Amino acid sequence: MSIFDFFKKSPSNTSKEKLRLDWMQVDMHSHLIPGVDDGSKTLEQSIDLIQRLKGYGLKKIITTPHIMWEFYKNTPEIVVKGIKTLREELSNQDIDIEIHGAAEYYLDEFFFEKIKRGEQLLTVSDNLILVETGFIEKPAIFLETLFELELQHYKPILAHPERYFYLLNDKKLVHDLLDRDVFFQINLLSLTGFYSKESKLFAETLIDENRVKLVGTDCHNGRYLDALETLPQSKYYEKLQALDLLNKTL
């Protein structure tokens, strides 16, 4: 043994811990219906992504295509048809995992009117509904829309709050949302620094303050999962597993 051998890292130090998501059981935020939004583009790609998610230990996937008036005019019928196609192909390939369809609604005046008209809305489970906003500015009718959802007996889940710049320095708004009992769902990828350093730090703060009710992969493509596999390197990987999350109840 040479003197340089003392400075070599042992295999145990260099080996990387494999990503496991069996502790959350259910991924409730993803974009896996092919060709309906900015997520998976083909059925083949969708099946490949689902197989990878199953390989991490997930038992169930609730996929949530964007519904956004200007860009993604998805409907419950489109989502139901897409889920039927996925289920049939999963069955054909003997891939045993539950998959259900919901939506990620963009919070704007068109969505507000949809709620007021009493249109059918896709929920993650029971009355839980996933909503998102633009990343830079707070919507003008943000709180009004959340209130209208509550009047219609829906329970809003705010998708990836750690990614909204307008929330970063607005502690009052954060507390207003929490006082309204809006559930916060963070993206696991935020803890890897995938989006930005600011999003990573905000996600960590929300975890430290016990503000997180749900987590999701927000999987759009293989690049997302490649980055997600670095999550075990985060000091928050174990903290995530200790949270009292609602994922397992969905």
UniProtKB/TrEMBL annotation:
Pfam families: CpsB_CapC
Recorded superkingdom: Bacteria
EC number: 3.1.3.48
UniProt keyword terms in alphabetical order: Hydrolase
Reaction it catalyzes: O-phospho-L-tyrosyl-[protein] + H2O = L-tyrosyl-[protein] + phosphate
Ranges annotated as spanning the membrane: none
Gene3D superfamilies in alphabetical order: Metal-dependent hydrolases
Family: Belongs to the metallo-dependent hydrolases superfamily. CpsB/CapC family.
Protein name (record): protein-tyrosine-phosphatase
Phylogenetic placement of the source organism: Bacteria, Pseudomonadati, Bacteroidota, Cytophagia, Cytophagales
